[in-house]
Amino acid sequence: MTNDKLFRILDANINRAMEGLRVVEEIVRFILDDKKLTLKIKNLRAELKKIVSKLPKKELLSARASLSDVGGKLYTKSESKRSKTEELFYSNIKRCEEAVRVLEEFSKYVNPKLGKNFKAIRFKLYDLEKQIARQLTASEGDGV
């Protein structure tokens, strides 16, 4: 695998993880109004940014090929419709978990120690998913 392809994979998954986590944060902050969980997510985003900062930014950006990405224009039926906040939450938390798993595996090519850091993030995401899902289920009767 070329460095360009490696950094393209890393860049796409960094973006995917950060964007998905931001959507989850908005749900927790503005829909659930949960200050404690919002802070946990903010801290997790900061932790993720810190780990990502150990990857060479120049290589990540130069490998980016957003406009020519063959997956960029694909849009599945499930992506085109969200009828409940729970669907929005699950699609984005899973997106984060999957992206962090990819980062965990592919970052080892650049810096083997990063894999362990990304794994720790992934397990924190699993725990957050459980906590937030509990609240979303409880608030389901509120029309959320």
Provide structural commentary.
This protein is mainly α. The chain has one domain. The chain has 5 helices and no strands. It has helices at residues 3-31, 35-52, 57-63, 85-106, 112-139. Helix 1 (3-31) crosses helix 3 (57-63) and helix 4 (85-106) packs antiparallel against helix 5. The longest helix is centred in the N-terminal third of the chain and has 29 residues, at 3-31. It is globular, with a radius of gyration of 16 Å. The protein starts with a helix and ends in a 5-residue tail after the last helix.
List keywords for this structure.
single chain; 144 residues; mainly alpha; globular
Write a brief structural summary.
The protein has five helices and no strands. By secondary structure, the protein is mainly alpha-helical. Helix 1 packs antiparallel against helix 2 (35-52).
Structural class label: mainly alpha
Q: How many E strands? A: 0
Order of helices and strands: HHHHH
Mean pLDDT: 90
- Tell me the helix content: over 70%
- The Cα radius of gyration reads 16 Å
Distinct helical segment count: 5
Write the layout of secondary structure elements.
Blueprint: H1 3-31, H2 35-52, H3 57-63, H4 85-106, H5 112-139
Helix pairs in contact: 1-2, 1-3, 1-4, 2-5, 4-5
